[in-house]
Amino acid sequence: MSIHSCPDPHRGGETKWTCVIPGMPNPGVAGVERSEPPERRMLGAHFVRPQPPENSRNHAIPFRRASAAAVTQHGSPARLVCAIAWFVTAIAVGVSVADEPPTRPAEPPAGRDPASAAAIVEQLREFREELPEPTILGMSDLAAYEEHALFVYAAGRLAAASGAQAETRWRHLLLWKPSLLIMVDGRPTGTTLDRSRPHISAGPVTVDCLVVRSAAGPGSRRSADGDATEGEVWIFRVPASEAAPLELEATVGDAASTQWTIQAGAQRVRLTGVVGQPGRGLLDAWSMDGAPVLESRLLPAGILPHGRRGAEMLARWDASYRGEQRAGWDTGRVASDLRDAVRTQLLRPGRAVEFGCGNGTNAVFLAQEGFDVTALDLAPTALAQARQRAEQAGVQVRWLLADVTAPPELEPVDVVFDRGCYHGVRRENAQGYVAALRRVTRPGARILILAGNANEQTGSGPPRVTEQELRDDFSAGFRFIHLETTRFDSATADRQGALAWSVLLERL
User: Can you give the pLDDT at residue 463?
Assistant: First the structure.
């Protein structure tokens, strides 16, 4: 007796299990091979791959649907004997009739074909008020997203294909407008370039395609964040261009140093460290004469304000850090209230996050005092300055381009510091700020906030908050350790800063 499976075209491709007994008529199976490898012999039974004729619809016995009544109904004694023999063999070898058929080979993730690439480009090309649907991008969720005048970036966990083993794999998508799509799946660690399909068609559209493949070797390990040490880079241009072929340069190292440089026409685009969990990658671009098109900057760790209005707001905020003139709120000095809180041990070393870190003065100070610091801001230029400041100081800080009301996944921290971020954000989304504060902190964590004081008499200065507004915002989930009047530091010692609140909270 033998058991074999085949897709049933009359049941939408559903796998059927069929019983075949040597020496008995089997009209549903033609050209059955009677030999089998030794390791597949089982109680005299053998497994065969069927070659059913076109009229085989009523000759196979689906093992999940077969019943004595169904077999008798066909009126074939051979079929009845076949069914009985199958059940006897199943019991003997410990096979359950309710077992699912074997899993089919895993299909490749969505987005790696020209039609999907064209759909992704169409989805991302224009500013959107709503976030794109992750499934269209081949992701199970959307963890990071930014719209920019020059590009759109999205990152999320790679949608698991049918039959794939459960594992953490990330997909990074960069659309360099208007037509260059770069897709980084997993953690590519090799540079095997596949040029077998330089031009492939998607209906009426022909796209350019380059593929870099990498497979984990024997004994390879997973990364610290659980991502597989294998992956692929797919580069599409929609539509194709015969006049300017795609060119790729790769420098492969650790997660932070791996680079992909793509030349498309008159511009070169470079991605650095774009692997694994979002937040570490850098993007820059330049023209063929070496003139910068986009200065090196962090890609987002979370979802940023989007749509045309959100992108314009981000551009205005970032412009505050460009040029020779210092931003009005940037004193270049460590906040006195923060320094005093550390000195008096109101804030003790531990995991810390700074909301609205600007160019990093206070985050670097905390790192120098022994804190494990993560710092968030919406301005890529400010974060580039902060990275340089930390390098010069010889300290490590995790800089993240992120919205404080939608922070990325972080390990709960012991300390939060905010100088001048809360009082601006609360006008638009006070509830979002408070919810984010609870999300990133552990019970017992301490939060020091410096905010504009509504008792200020002058007409200029930062946004202002009343004492009642502070108590309304934070009383539900935090305990007030102190709520005191203070002043912001100024850029020079001879000037008095604006009136402020010094708020020290403890997370309940």
Answer: 93
Assigned token pair, 284: 């820059």
Q: What is the DSSP letter of 456?
A: -
How do strand 413-419 and strand 441-452 relate by DSSP bridges?
parallel
Is the predicted pLDDT of residue 351 greater than 70, yes or no?
A: yes
- CATH 3.20.20.70 is right for the domain spanning 336-507: no
Sheet-wide strand order for 441-452 = 397-401, 372-377, 351-355, 413-419, 441-452, 499-507, 478-487
Is 50 exceeded by the pLDDT of residue 269? yes
Pairing of the two strands 351-355 and 292-298: unpaired
What are the residue boundaries of the structural domains of the chain, listed by start?
2-92, 114-217+227-301, 336-507
| Model pLDDT, residue 461 | 84
What percentage of the chain has pLDDT greater than the value 70?
Answer: 70
3-class SS shares of the chain: helix, strand, coil, % to 5: 25, 30, 45
- The C-alpha atoms of residue 126 and residue 209 are separated, in whole angstroms, by 22
Comparing CA positions, the residue from 320, 338, 387 lying closest to residue 360 is 387
The two three-digit tokens of residue 18, written as one number: 């069929």
Place of tokens 């985050």: 363
- Residues contacting residue 187 through CB under 8 Å, at least 6 positions apart: 214, 223, 227, 228, 229, 230, 231, 255, 275, 276
Note the pLDDT tens digit of each residue in 390-400.
999 999 999 99
